Amino acid sequence: MNQNHLLELAEDVVRRALAAGSTDAECTIAEGEEFTANVRMRELENLKEAGSRGAGLRILIGRKTGSAYTSDLSSEGIARLVHSAVELADITTEDPHAGLPDAAELGALPGDLRLYTPGVEGLDTALKIDFAKRAEDAALSADARISNSEGASFDTHTGRHIFANSRGFAGEYRTSYCSLAVSPVASEGDSMERDYWYTLARGVDGLETPEEVGRIAARRALRRLHAVKVETQKVPVVFEPRTARSLLDNIFEAVHGMSIYRHESFLAGKLGEKVANDNLTVVDDGTLPGLFGTSPFDDEGVPSRRTVVIERGVLKSYLLNSYAGRKLGMKTTGNASRGLAGNAGIGHGNFFIQQGVQSPEQILAGISNGFYVTELLGFGVNIVTGDYSRGAAGLWIRNGELAFAVSEVTIAGNLKDMLLGMETVGADLEFRGSVAAPTIKIGEMTVAGR
Amino acid sequence: MKYMRFSESIFAQRFQITRQDLENYLAEALSRGGDYADLYFEYMATSSISIDESMVKSAAQGVSVGVGVRVISGERTGYAYSGDLAPEKIRKAAGVAACIANGPGKVDKVDLNEGALHNLYPVVIAPTETAFSERVELVKRADRAARAYDPQIFQVQATYADNLRQVLVATSEGVLTLDRQPLARLSVSALARHNGGPPQRGHAGGGGRVELSFFLDQKPPEHFAQEAAREAIAMLDAVDAPAGETTVVLGPGWPGILLHEAVGHGLEADFNRKGVSKFSGRMGQKVASELCTVIDDGTLGSRRGSLNVDDEGHATQRNVLIENGILRGYLQDKLSSSLAGSSSTGSGRRESYAHIPMPRMTNTFMLAGQSDPQDILRSVSKGLYCANFGGGQVDITSGNFVFSASESYLIEDGHLTRPVRNATLIGNGPEALKYVSMVGNDLRLDEGIGVCGKEGQSVPVGVGIPTIRIDRMTVGGTA
Q1: CA dihedral defined by B398, B404, B408, B412, rounded to 10 degrees?
Q2: Residues 6+ apart with CB under 8 A from B217
Q3: What gap in Å lies between CA A155 and CA A146, rounded to an integer?
Q4: Is B43 exposed, middle or buried (0-12, 13-18, 19+ CB in 10 A)?
Q5: Do A48 and B80 touch (CB under 8 A)?
Q6: What residue of A is the nearest CA neighbor of B404?
Q7: What domain range includes position B384?
Q8: Distance in Å, alpha carbon of A112 to nearest chain B alpha carbon
Q9: pLDDT by residue (tens digit) across A132-141?
Q10: Domains of chain A, with CATH numbers?
Q11: What one-character DSSP code corresponds to residue B193?
Q12: pLDDT of B3
């Protein structure tokens, strides 16, 4: 089935839903092909290859909703899909805010957003295996203490996203990506530590070299060896970009429109207030060509856009789909996100912290005693209260330098205080995925250890 | 109830797949010289209903169908899948998976035989097959009960979700197994606040491989709703959690997540075969106090983590992981056990037909000890009592694991005093259980809500533990 057929199919599903009694309908179709090659200890371990597709339908009958999905796109399968969604409207409740975006809000960004690179699906299997082997070999060859590995993997994915609704929207776009990751294991004496590094891009030409990825992964694993547990104390904590990203994940949850109207976020009701340090500006931008959080339209058919969420410490906007917008008396920010089944949720585009001016070295130089966090473990963040307590590993900062490895400790505080305490934002922002942060320093957190 | 035969399965009846077809696909999969092949057919029907602000805002149902073809050649695995059961699509997947091997075919013909299975969840009508009008009542009742519990409860969300997975596994060793795996759960989240102050949340939920009557007769929606509301209210007065090493008492049930993170993952055979687990090479060594015996058992009736047959067609079993503190066994799947020259422990699981199986846990728990739970509390002059947890995670290579307390209390002079704010507990796998100094006689399994993630694959699991005292563990608070 070619792409036009899938777009026509989505429009047809919407028509059939209306014919079956729906007053509004929206149909999502997703099609994807994936390939994975895993290599371990310089030998091929797994090859995986396949494609799949599915369709989802959400309907409204007045202010009642129902939804269904199927992997069967045959005429019979589509008939069942429509029946299944319509049938469920019987058991849901009239919700005065349920609905689709207004027709005026619908649309797609013009031009080529560079989300798809031709040729990704035709890449030679031998070349993909070779990329993984070279990355792992670079890690294993980096140091005698790297004597084991969890392997390296080369993944590709191509997809097609189709969306149509009964307000006249029909659109589609294609995506592709390639990624290369390696997880070496360093050991010496009783100490054994694993770390990883990776590169990803829309096409194979955008990847960093396998050798570079392998060397960085090895260096990361090696510097964790002989980690100790430090004494419990309150110190400045520096998050490297990989762990700083997780703070953005927390901020995203806290400005998520659904959490706001339910009052289950510590940032609910704080619009226009100072919630973070003056140095902190957080942006969601789904329009940046080629990046991983970019799309021409969101999962309700609203064009992606740039939204400043926090500007120099002041909370400027929540992230909303049309439902959360109606609940809050606001407009959608084009952040609807959904799988095949159910109502639209909320997602982010490229969600990032605007970079500052200091290099990571300059940030560390100002700290006589502190903790540089390179790994976080667990889910100990409560967005309702802001309470934050997570397992951590990293390096201890002594007199402005990284002195020794630390593990089996926790870092704790409250996100309200942590946001206000983000004293320094680094100049090292880079996009390695749809969430990106530079190095961040928080003035004080509790490190719990011995 | 009798076992389902192949000829009665949805795959034979609706998709017209014959035994001969299965044998042909396996032959195609081995045509390039692979050592072993299997086919995993899956027909999955799901439904979910959610209530929020006392309105049923979402109801969804759907079906996905597919087949995964795996070929093993030495230590290598080739895998391909299709979301379409048309013969040419399955043959194509078999041909792609076959390419992991490179040589002449070694197997002439596969003869498939149906074996007998456990019958752990004799569910006649799966919840997924019942009327929506009955199931929607569960979330409405949960909403009403949580709000009625206390006027300080101001937000309630409840989700009921079920699925019915029908699977067929056919292997080149001649095994043909079928299973029908129902699963249902109800979860409730409640927010409480006092006089417009800052809110606190409580969670509860449960279910299993049960009929819908479970939620009417055994664990009604009110049970979970009141528990979620109680936790939210209890946490309103929470004080800062302590920071640093202290004595920790875990309550019975869901706190068994400790075992899942501290030892369970580290004992999965793939990590140990590769020598990347902190438990690698420690078989027969002491890794816990002699009070600790830890079991992984996929054969408990109706439990969320139980399976009649694992996702490689092998019957599940009861596996002793740690016996009186000594490491006794790993969790093995087909590949790891073949390479180790041992046999599968029925632990090969996968999220769906689109995933390669690997060793996973089922229901992981510690056997009951001798101590009265009240005596355990009374023995602690200063420490932390953890009644409930959120999620956990482990770095299997360093052995460091965490699990996050969602409801805990200070222990002072043998009594629970103040509730404390959410805190993460951290420890190291082979060390943490050495500090277990008392084990209660009150083993309890969790209510049936656990999901375990590994390498991007999620599977339902269970945990359980009696009340235990751990003399030393790091608590990640701020006080």
Answers
A1: 20
A2: none
A3: 24
A4: buried
A5: yes
A6: A380
A7: 243-476
A8: 31
A9: 999 999 999 9
A10: 3-222 (3.30.2290.10), 227-450 (no CATH)
A11: -
A12: 62
> Given an 8 Å threshold on Cβ–Cβ distance, is B274 in contact with A88?
no
For B360, half-sphere exposure in the C-beta direction (CA atoms, 13 angstrom radius) is 27
- % of chain A residues with pLDDT over 90: 98
Beta pairing, strands A197-201 & A170-188: antiparallel
* A405 Cα to chain B: minimum distance (Å): 13
Residue B155 has its nearest CB partner, among A93, A193, A264, at A264
Which residue bears the tokens 């104390």?
A233
> In this predicted model, what pLDDT tens digit does every residue of A45-91 receive, in sequence order?
999 999 899 999 999 999 999 999 999 999 999 999 999 999 999 99
Task: Identify the pLDDT of residue B104.
Answer: 85
> Are residues B261 and B126 part of one domain?
no
CB A81 within 8 A of CB A13: yes
Residue B1 lies in a domain: no
Q: What is the pLDDT of residue A4?
A: 66
Which portions of chain B are predicted below pLDDT 70? 1-3, 108
* pLDDT at A261 exceeding the cut of 50: yes
The predicted pLDDT at position B204 comes to 97
**CATH code at B70?**
3.30.2290.10
Cα–Cα distance for residue pair A310/A154, rounded to 1 Å: 36
> Do B204 and B289 fall into the same domain?
no
CB contact under 8 A, B426 and A53: no
Residue labelled with tokens 């998709």: B15
List, in sequence order, every beta strand (DSSP E) within A166-216: 170-188, 191-194, 197-201
Q: Is B39 on the interface with A (CB under 8 A)?
A: no
Asked if B99 and A389 come within 8 Å (Cβ–Cβ), the reply is no
Phi, psi angles (nearest 5°) of residue A288: -75, 115
3-state secondary structure of B15: coil
CA distances from B463 to A30, B183, B294 (A): 36, 16, 11
Tokens 């030892």 — which residue? B263
Which of B25, B458, B82, B96 lies closest to A72 in space, CA to CA? B82
Chain A CB contacts of B76 under 8 Å are 43-47
Residues in chain A: 450
pLDDT given at position A1: 44
pLDDT tens per residue, range A351-398 = 999 999 999 999 999 999 999 999 999 999 999 999 999 999 999 999
Cβ neighbours, 10 Å, residue A231: 11
Based on the domain organization, do B126 and B275 belong to the same domain? no
Residues 6+ apart with CB under 8 A from A18: A25, A166
A429: its two tokens: 């922002």
The pTM of the full predicted model, rounded to 2 decimals, is 0.96
**B476 closest CB neighbour out of A47, A50, A448:** A448
Q: Which helix (H) or strand (E) holds B46?
A: strand B36-52
For A140-196, the pLDDT digits (tens) are 999 999 999 999 999 999 999 999 999 999 999 999 999 999 999 999 999 999 999
Predicted confidence at residue B23, as pLDDT, reads 96
CA–CA–CA angle A174, A175, A181 (5° rounding) = 165
A294-352 pLDDT, tens digit each: 999 999 999 999 999 999 999 999 999 999 999 999 999 999 999 998 999 999 999 99
Domain end position, chosen among B219, B236, B253? B236
Cα separation, B381 vs B377, whole angstroms: 9
Per-residue pLDDT band for A116 (boundaries 50, 70, 90) equals very high
Q: What's the CA gap between B38 and B169, in Å, rounded?
A: 7
Which of B10, B61, B455, B475 should be substituted to probe chain A, the one whose Cβ sees the most A Cβ atoms within 10 Å?
Answer: B61
Residue type, A94: E
Select from A200, A199, A202 the least CA-distant residue to A176: A202
Do B316 and B186 share a structural domain?
no
